[in-house]
Specification:
With about 170 residues, the chain is α+β, with helices and mostly antiparallel strands. The chain has a single domain, classed as Aminopeptidase (3-Layer(aba) Sandwich). About 30% of the residues lie in helices and about 35% in strands. It has six helices and eight strands. It has an eight-stranded mixed β-sheet with strand order 1-2-3-4-5-6-8-7. A hairpin with a 2-residue loop joins β7 and β8. α1 packs across α3. The longest helix is centred in the middle third of the chain and has 15 residues. The two termini are about 25 Å apart. InterPro entries: Acyl_CoA_acyltransferase (IPR016181), GNAT_dom (IPR000182).
Amino acid sequence: MITLKGKNIYLRALEPEDLEFIYAIENDESVWEISNTQTPYSRYLIKQYLEHGQKDIFEVKQLRLVVTSYNEDALGLIDLFDFDFKNKRAGVGILIKDDTDRKKGYGSEALQLLIKYSFTHLGLHQLYCNISEENKTSIKLFKTQGFKEVGLKKEWNYVNGSYKNEYLFQLINN
């Protein structure tokens, strides 16, 4: 895979050594709303996922990369999901794990690298993301990278006993 290097971070493929990092993220209930997770994941399931995680995006319709600092710290994850080769589009999701690593530009840099990779190497025409209307940080991140708000899905997600609206954003490669 092409190495995706930025100024402060780089994106790399998942490795077996990422087991505890992925386990911590997937079992952090505070981010379940973002990832539409409903139940915890076992180390066993995550280990199996990592063992099969090197399959091609064209086969599994997903690409998950680790946002990594140059001192080799795993900072977060960035995903392409619902990869649709026929229509040349994919969804994007991003998470910087620790609060102390947020608002330092890592997410912005990771998103820039993924956008360039998606349009240049995968030949995609568009990327999209779904963001809760309460997630002002993510809305700002995606807007700064050129994503446009194209719709509001009313009462789209049921979270902690109430319905929440969700925005749909798109970035079209012209």
